Amino acid sequence: MKIKKEILQAFMTKYDISVETLADELNVEVSEIEKLLSGQSVDEITARKFIGYFGVDEARELVDWHAMGKPKPRN
After folding, report:
1. What span, in angstroms and rounded, lies between the C-alpha atoms of 66 and 14?
2. What is the pLDDT of residue 73?
3. N or C end of the chain: which has fewer CB within 10 A?
4. At 24, phi and psi to the nearest 5?
5. What is the pLDDT of residue 74?
6. Which long-range contacts (CB under 8 A, 24 or more apart) does 40-49 make?
Protein backbone atom coordinates (compact mmCIF):
# COMPACT_ATOMS: atom_id res chain seq x y z
CA MET A 1 0.00 0.00 0.00
CA LYS A 2 1.11 3.52 -0.77
CA ILE A 3 -0.38 6.64 0.74
CA LYS A 4 -0.56 10.32 -0.14
CA LYS A 5 2.44 11.28 1.96
CA GLU A 6 1.64 14.99 1.96
CA ILE A 7 -1.75 14.38 3.55
CA LEU A 8 -0.31 12.06 6.20
CA GLN A 9 2.42 14.59 6.99
CA ALA A 10 -0.16 17.39 7.27
CA PHE A 11 -2.23 15.24 9.66
CA MET A 12 0.82 14.51 11.79
CA THR A 13 1.80 18.17 11.87
CA LYS A 14 -1.73 19.36 12.67
CA TYR A 15 -2.02 17.02 15.65
CA ASP A 16 1.66 17.22 16.63
CA ILE A 17 2.21 13.49 16.16
CA SER A 18 5.78 12.30 15.78
CA VAL A 19 6.87 9.39 13.62
CA GLU A 20 7.64 7.47 16.80
CA THR A 21 4.22 8.16 18.30
CA LEU A 22 2.36 7.08 15.16
CA ALA A 23 4.49 3.94 14.93
CA ASP A 24 3.68 3.16 18.56
CA GLU A 25 -0.05 3.77 18.04
CA LEU A 26 -0.08 1.51 14.97
CA ASN A 27 2.18 -1.03 16.70
CA VAL A 28 4.67 -1.00 13.81
CA GLU A 29 8.35 -0.21 13.48
CA VAL A 30 9.34 3.43 12.98
CA SER A 31 10.81 2.39 9.63
CA GLU A 32 7.30 1.53 8.40
CA ILE A 33 6.06 5.06 9.06
CA GLU A 34 9.20 6.46 7.45
CA LYS A 35 8.41 4.35 4.35
CA LEU A 36 4.90 5.80 4.20
CA LEU A 37 6.22 9.36 4.54
CA SER A 38 8.79 8.81 1.80
CA GLY A 39 6.25 7.43 -0.68
CA GLN A 40 7.34 3.81 -0.44
CA SER A 41 4.90 0.95 -0.18
CA VAL A 42 4.37 -1.05 2.99
CA ASP A 43 3.34 -4.66 3.49
CA GLU A 44 -0.16 -5.96 4.12
CA ILE A 45 0.27 -6.14 7.89
CA THR A 46 1.19 -2.45 8.14
CA ALA A 47 -1.56 -1.56 5.65
CA ARG A 48 -4.17 -3.33 7.78
CA LYS A 49 -2.96 -1.56 10.92
CA PHE A 50 -3.01 1.78 9.10
CA ILE A 51 -6.58 1.23 7.92
CA GLY A 52 -7.61 0.07 11.39
CA TYR A 53 -6.12 3.20 12.97
CA PHE A 54 -7.64 5.72 10.55
CA GLY A 55 -10.84 3.86 9.74
CA VAL A 56 -11.94 2.77 6.31
CA ASP A 57 -13.41 6.07 5.15
CA GLU A 58 -10.39 8.18 6.14
CA ALA A 59 -7.88 5.60 4.92
CA ARG A 60 -9.62 5.50 1.53
CA GLU A 61 -8.75 9.19 1.14
CA LEU A 62 -5.15 8.72 2.30
CA VAL A 63 -4.31 5.77 0.06
CA ASP A 64 -2.66 6.74 -3.22
CA TRP A 65 -4.74 4.55 -5.50
CA HIS A 66 -3.28 6.05 -8.67
CA ALA A 67 0.29 5.24 -7.60
CA MET A 68 -0.77 1.64 -7.00
CA GLY A 69 -2.55 1.41 -10.36
CA LYS A 70 -5.91 0.70 -8.73
CA PRO A 71 -9.27 2.46 -8.95
CA LYS A 72 -10.41 4.22 -5.79
CA PRO A 73 -13.11 2.13 -4.09
CA ARG A 74 -16.53 3.69 -3.87
CA ASN A 75 -18.34 4.27 -0.60
Report:
1. 25
2. 87
3. C
4. -65, -45
5. 83
6. 40/2, 41/1, 41/2, 41/68, 42/1, 42/2, 44/1, 46/1, 47/1
Where does residue 38 rank: exposed (0-12), middle (13-18), buried (19+ CB within 10 A)? exposed
pLDDT at 59: 93
Which amino acid does the sequence have at 9? Q
Report the distance separating Cα 29 and Cα 48, nearest Å: 14
Q: What one-character DSSP code corresponds to residue 5?
A: H
CB 62 within 8 A of CB 7: yes
pTM, to two decimals: 0.88
Q: Any idea what the Cα angle at residue 48 is, between residues 42 and 49, rounded to 5°?
A: 90
At position 42, the amino acid (one-letter code) is V
